[in-house]
């Protein structure tokens, strides 16, 4: 099966401390993979390494889907303070977004009273180019994407930076729904979402045609979405088929197997010690019996205290 992403034996250090090592992972085309692990193990650092935001200290990353075909949802992203919600989602189409920004700048100059025919001609030319590229139809698709995620028109002009956590997450998904990248990378995508939006997100991801790798603490969400679950620990990664419930069942089985093995090893150790003790006792009894049957050894043993006394006397 073709893979969208393959990670082999990566390791990451942070402030002189190793977060994890021997971490390997594979996401096949069309597969939905959850990455779980305790807090502080380095899950976000792992994701940052995948997109090149940070570098791994060891290991190899092979991307079956090129990075420019990736899309991601993050807990914290940098957005210009003045960028509105609408413009943030609109920026999914880079060329149209740049052209729209140029048009806005030209319009601002004209509204300020700049009476320059060259500026007017350039503005009209940009409008024609924007229309020819489907810019106005694209704006309608942005509106539809925003409203589908519960972000109504009254929020379109609000700066992204002033939105609530849940609104920011919805805005990121609205942008992704327009981009439709081949690979999705999601860091805690369920944060700040209500039940209705969670249901929408689950349905959208399950029907998503591309590959998905996500980090989440939401067990129900993992069960609903993931085909495969990887656990990240300081010692590496391990894959489990299915969602969180399947992972938990497999971990419990591993624990019971380890406990059974430990118990068996303890029993075998106890039996070995008992066998050694029995052999020691048998040897001592056999040695004593042999001494009783050997007159020379018996006489030597009987005279030993006298010999020792004579030596000490000298």
Automatic annotation (TrEMBL):
Hydrolase recorded as keyword: no
Gene Ontology terms for molecular function: ATP binding; ATP hydrolysis activity
CDD domains in alphabetical order: ABCF_EF-3
Record keywords, A-Z: ATP-binding, Nucleotide-binding
Keyword Cell membrane recorded: no
InterPro entries: AAA+_ATPase (IPR003593), ABC_tran_Xtn (IPR032781), ABC_transporter-like_ATP-bd (IPR003439), ABC_transporter-like_CS (IPR017871), ABCF_ATPase (IPR051309), P-loop_NTPase (IPR027417)
Pfam families on file: ABC_tran (PF00005), ABC_tran_Xtn (PF12848)
Protein's UniProt name: ATP-binding cassette domain-containing protein
Annotated organism of origin: Alicyclobacillus acidoterrestris (strain ATCC 49025 / DSM 3922 / CIP 106132 / NCIMB 13137 / GD3B)
């Amino acid at each position: 099966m073709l893979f969208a992403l393959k990670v082999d034996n990566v390791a990451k250090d942070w402030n002189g401390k190793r977060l994890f090592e021997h971490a390997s992972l594979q996401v096949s085309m069309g597969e939905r993979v959850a990455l779980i692990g305790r807090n502080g193990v380095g899950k976000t650092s792992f994701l940052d390494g995948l997109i090149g935001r940070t570098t791994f200290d060891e290991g190899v990353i092979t991307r079956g889907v090129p990075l420019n075909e990736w899309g991601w949802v993050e807990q914290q992203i940098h957005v210009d303070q003045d960028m509105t919600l609408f413009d943030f989602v609109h920026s999914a189409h880079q060329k149209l977004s740049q052209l729209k920004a140029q048009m806005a700048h030209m319009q601002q100059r004209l509204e300020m009273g700049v009476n320059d025919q060259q500026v007017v001609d350039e503005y009209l030319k940009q409008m024609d180019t924007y229309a020819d590229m489907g810019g106005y139809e694209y704006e309608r698709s942005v509106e539809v994407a925003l409203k589908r995620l519960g972000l109504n028109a009254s929020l379109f002009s609000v700066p992204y930076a002033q939105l609530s956590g849940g609104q920011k997450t919805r805005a990121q998904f609205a942008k992704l729904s327009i981009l439709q990248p081949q690979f999705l990378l999601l860091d805690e995508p369920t944060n700040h979402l209500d039940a209705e939006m969670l249901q929408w997100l689950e349905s959208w991801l399950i029907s998503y045609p591309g590959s998905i790798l996500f980090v989440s603490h939401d067990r129900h969400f993992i069960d609903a979405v993931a085909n495969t679950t990887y656990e990240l620990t300081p010692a590496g990664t391990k894959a489990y088929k299915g969602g969180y419930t399947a992972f938990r069942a497999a971990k419990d089985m591993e624990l019971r197997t380890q406990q059974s093995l430990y118990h068996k090893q303890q029993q075998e150790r106890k039996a070995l010690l008992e066998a050694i003790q029995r052999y020691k006792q048998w040897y001592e009894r056999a040695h004593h019996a042999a001494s009783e049957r050997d007159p020379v050894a018996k006489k030597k043993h009987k005279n030993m205290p006298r010999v020792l006394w004579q030596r000490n006397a000298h």
